[in-house]
Write a structure and sequence with these properties.
By secondary structure, the protein is an alpha/beta fold. Helices cover 35% and strands 21% of the residues. It binds nicotinamide-adenine-dinucleotide (NAD).
Length: 397
């Protein structure tokens, strides 16, 4: 039995091209490592930097041939589309304002796409990508990587299994301290793209981490935010972009929630935390201790769920590569997203059926729902925190 599902379906690995993520980018290295972990992809081309010479040199430094270490993303898309051995998949990890151009250009040329969040900076752009995905049938994977953790998947599977009952309450928080400094950003370094609303989007904190928190809540619970009452702004004096957002949420099944995100909590590292309560029990998960999910049933003592430990459900088990007690974390969760996307892409390209459990990775519609949530939160905050609809009217064409 062949264990590499992509080779099984296609007789070879998927050919991957990457746009962005050049020297110094944290997330670029994560994408490339995630693509390699399960051996589903072969990196064949890159356009790694906005500076053409740096881009070419960095691509060669990754071991790519000179003709495929491109200087510009559009050059890459045209070059790879024109080759018989060209890339199958394009992964995009550039600043937010360029996602629409490069992802749209990739879909137009027939590439499957893996794109980092937020999908775009505006809802209109996001819906344009949703339309292109629908009309082409191509795969679009959005790297909300926290959905790749085994214990997040266990929580989702427990909800779907009915172990928590009907969803009643959701508390989600994403608290970081990276922007707590009064002198951040350093004026001597110039304005980073994130601090420019044209490049970084209408709300820094919402684009950077609010979209992750929103997606995690939807992913685990399976319910949608219907209304939001929000306050968004800057805690650090003098800062012109948002560094915190707090909101009350109403969900489409009547559940209630709270949402709290900030990058200005001094000393906090990467505290993405969620508690979900249903009629029969609650689960709690914290990204900084990712191998432990607390399950508190209504009528019994609280219990831990651990990767591949007792009570593991199939959707969680397939997200773990090691036996119980051997910790996996960020890289492996990111790789789960890549490998699930690979299953869908290889199935589409080979005409073979995918494993249905692989098809839960975030997609373009999840990205559009994230943008609708951001826009509703901003509108609510500007209106003094009034309840504002977050329902996305989905165009049928
Ligand atoms: N999934 C996550 O958890 C996560 C974490 C961090 C960043 N991100 C996302 O990744 C994206 C990049 O963020 P970052 O923190 O790596 O930014 P960054 O500024 O650190 O890196 C961006 C990289 O893209 C390159 N680049 C910029 N414009 C380009 C262009 N036109 N063509 C080719 N390359 C270009 C830059 O040279 C740099 O190497 C953003 O959309 C961000 O939201 C996601």
């Amino acid at each position: 039995m062949i264990e590499n599902r992509v080779i099984e379906m296609m007789g070879r690995r998927l050919r991957l091209a990457v746009i962005g993520g050049g020297p110094g980018s944290f997330i670029g290295a994560m994408h490339r490592a995630a693509a390699r972990l399960d051996d589903r992809y072969q990196l064949v081309a890159s356009a790694l930097s906005s500076d053409p010479e740096r881009a070419r040199l960095a691509g060669i430094g990754l071991g790519l041939s000179e003709d495929r270490a491109y200087g510009h993303p559009i050059e890459l898309l045209d070059g790879e589309a024109g080759r018989t051995d060209g890339a199958d998949v394009v992964a995009i990890m550039t600043p937010n304002d360029s996602h629409h151009l490069y992802a749209g250009g990739a879909l137009d040329r027939g590439f499957d796409v893996i794109c980092d969040k937020p999908i775009t900076n505006t809802l209109d752009e996001a819906l344009d990508l949703v339309g292109k995905v629908r009309s082409t049938g191509l795969v679009f994977c959005l790297t909300h990587n926290y959905t790749g953790y085994p214990m997040v998947r266990q929580a989702k599977a427990m909800v779907e299994d009915g172990q928590l009952g009907e969803m009643r309450l959701v508390q989600v928080e994403y608290v970081q301290g990276g922007k707590a400094g009064e002198n951040d950003p350093d004026p001597a370094q110039g304005l980073p793209w994130r601090y420019d609303p044209v490049r970084g989007g209408p709300s820094l904190v919402m684009g950077d981490i609010g979209t992750h928190a929103h997606n995690l809540a939807r992913f685990i619970t399976g319910i949608e935010v219907s209304e939001i009452a929000a306050e968004i702004g800057a805690i650090v004096p003098g800062r012109l972009v948002d560094d915190y957002a707090a909101a009350m949420l109403r969900f489409d099944n009547g559940a209630r929630g709270t949402f709290w995100v900030t990058q200005a909590a001094a000393g906090v590292e990467n505290c993405l935390r969620i508690r979900v309560s249903g009629t029969r029990g609650s689960v709690e998960w914290n990204q900084e201790q990712p191998t432990h999910l607390l399950f508190s049933p209504l009528d019994g003592p609280a219990e831990w769920r651990t990767p591949n430990g007792p009570g593991t459900l199939p959707f969680s088990a397939r997200a773990t590569r090691v036996v119980a007690g051997h910790p996996e974390a960020f890289h492996e969760a990111f790789a789960n997203i890549y490998s699930d996307a690979a299953e869908a892409i290889a199935a589409r390209r080979s005409g073979k059926p995918p494993d249905p459990l692989a098809l839960h990775f975030p997609n373009a519609m999840d990205g559009a729902l994230g943008l609708k949530f951001v826009e509703a939160a901003i509108a609510s905050s500007r209106a003094g925190g009034t309840w504002t609809s977050a329902v996305l009217e989905i165009p049928q064409t």
